[in-house]
Automatic annotation (TrEMBL), chains A, B:
Species assigned in the record: Endomicrobium proavitum
Name of the protein this chain belongs to: Carbamoyl phosphate phosphatase, hydrogenase 3 maturation protein
Stated family: Belongs to the HypE family.
Lineage: Bacteria, Pseudomonadati, Elusimicrobiota, Endomicrobiia, Endomicrobiales
InterPro entries on file: HypE, PurM-like_C_dom, PurM-like_C_sf, PurM-like_N, PurM-like_N_sf
Biological process, per Gene Ontology: protein maturation
Pfam families linked: AIRS (PF00586), AIRS_C (PF02769)
PurM-like N-terminal domain span: 36-148
Domain PurM-like C-terminal: 160-308
Length: 333, 333
């Protein structure tokens, strides 16, 4: 391969290869190489999380949100998964000539509401305009800084044999909602993206259990890609109990018809929490107290072997959950 | 106007209107409203600068640099202009399907060299891929955080009557170089973009004179747009001495032929320093000691009236330097 393909942006194996072969090769440093959801670094003695994300979602307005809300929540979620309390945020737009000002205003308003709800201010920004045909509507980048309390030490490397894995609610809603908004395949449906800022939820979890091992939001590539990353970083196995994974009936039905596995579909308002078996009930309770975590379930456990990610089916057999090579849905975020 | 135009991205009046009518309306907060090159904020007691910029320059490889070097230096310069020492940087790429991997590698290498030279690490990143035709090659966003020492208090609001304005070297080289790389108009030329990271230069200035009033890098819209912003923020007048503005002969000649005023042309490795008359010689010396400031000159003075920006011509007459409404060169950065 000598050219960029859509798979390079899909969060699976091709993305991983691109990171290893180009970005890690040139940018390698201790902070970056952790490859967690956000960088964790010391700035003049202050423990901080720092993350960036560009959003190219299509369509820009969808059931449950828009590119503005997503661009705020996506990045707030990345620093929240490192246990940080958001301190400040940047926003930068690349806009195609001819883009309607009323749509820009609607997006700005949505960003402002999402930021206010998350308790963070957008303190700096940038706007670039390119000619008609040189971009598709609007792309938004956000970056965020947050402060991490002493004693909180989250990382994809920290999963341990015996740990339990909680998902904070029904999966696959963002990806399926976006897909149906592009082409509804003749389905009438009420599926909404789960797009939401999770810093309140992570704050609640860390309050009752500051020594959670891993928090992650399963976005591109879904739960499958995220758990594969964690299994590799922590050098463990993860066994998912198929029947315990919460999926709304309508989403499950559409996945069945279209041949998608919900485990591979993107979420934008869910998290995975990995903690010791002993801490699991209190974390589950903390999730369920928050409206964004009310359908939280224990879905998996961490084992020493077999390595990798597996689903235990109803019959008790183990099926390997591969890190997808496929771009199921481009421009999902 | 109900649609985005190229002028909205050009750094002049249309950009200002967009910021006031949409972004300030929805995002207004004390930190953002300062509208300096970077936000200055307290994070758990630490005084920090935070800035973001997206780079959409065309062509991506040009004489004197490329989109990678520019994306590192542009954002490092923004926080440096607030007096910050860079602490960490993010990088996010939006790439068009089919983009050559060897070009991506060349850009990553260039970013890595620029970051190393500036003494900053790229600690977090993101890659999105869009379909062929949905973007033009590659767009890069960078954000940076830096730490500001106590006693340093830079802002576009701080210019005072009697202050002198230094420019750190020959102007208009970035803009003219990019224009000629797109269409050389039959000229043979050796004009290089001045693209450079200025944190070494600002560090040198602040070492000898921590109470400099304003530092700014005159990028989009050139010296004219930057001085207009400062004159407005500080509610002062600025009188430029036309004959003292350093412009390389070849750049001046091309500007004459094409009818461009170098004051309006973008720079990517120059700064304007505004300080009291008494401090001006030591700041000038500090600039000239650094290879990026060796041709620094005093080019203007700050007055109480007339307000706005003016050029004193050879005959002694004052000509108003308007904030341009025109997009002279789209995708200049």
């Amino acid at each position: 391969m000598d050219k960029i393909t859509l798979a390079h942006g899909a969060g699976g194996n091709a993305s991983k290869n691109l990171i290893n072969k180009i970005f890690k090769k040139y940018f390698s440093n201790k902070t970056l190489d952790a490859l967690d959801d956000a960088a964790v670094l010391k700035i003049s003695g202050l423990k901080a999380a720092f993350s960036t994300d560009s959003f190219v979602i299509n369509p820009i307005f969808f059931n449950g949100g828009d590119i503005g809300k997503l661009s705020v929540c996506g990045t707030i979620n990345d620093i929240s998964m490192m246990g940080a309390t958001p301190a400040a945020m940047s926003a930068a737009a690349i806009i195609e000539e001819g883009f309607p000002l009323k749509d820009l205003e609607r997006i700005a308003k949505s960003m402002s509401v999402a930021a206010k709800n998350a308790g963070v201010e957008i303190v700096t920004g940038d706007t670039k305009v390119v000619k008609k045909g040189e971009a598709d509507g609007i792309f938004i980048n956000t970056s965020a800084i947050g402060v991490i309390k002493n004693g909180v030490n989250l990382s994809g490397k920290n999963a341990k044999s015996g740990d339990k894995i909680i998902v904070s609610g029904n999966i696959a809603e963002h990806g399926i909602s976006i897909m149906l908004s592009r082409d509804n395949f003749g389905f009438k449906n009420n599926i909404k993206s789960d797009c939401a800022c999770l810093n309140g939820l992570t704050g609640g979890i860390l309050k009752v259990c500051p020594n959670v091992h891993v928090l992650r939001d399963p976005t591109r590539g879904g739960v499958a890609a995220t758990l594969n990353e964690i299994a590799e970083s922590s050098n463990v196995g993860i066994i998912i109990d198929a029947k315990s994974v919460p999926v709304a009936k309508e989403v499950a039905a559409i996945c069945r018809v279209l041949g998608f596995d919900p485990l591979y579909i993107a979420n934008e308002g869910k998290l995975l929490s990995i903690q010791s078996a002993a801490d699991t009930v209190k974390v589950l309770n903390a999730c369920q107290k928050n409206k964004l975590g009310k359908n939280a379930k224990v879905i998996a456990e961490v084992v020493n072997s077999p390595k990798g990610v597996w689903v235990k089916t109803a019959s008790g057999a183990l099926r390997k959950v591969l890190n997808s090579d496929m771009e199921q849905l481009p421009r999902i975020c």
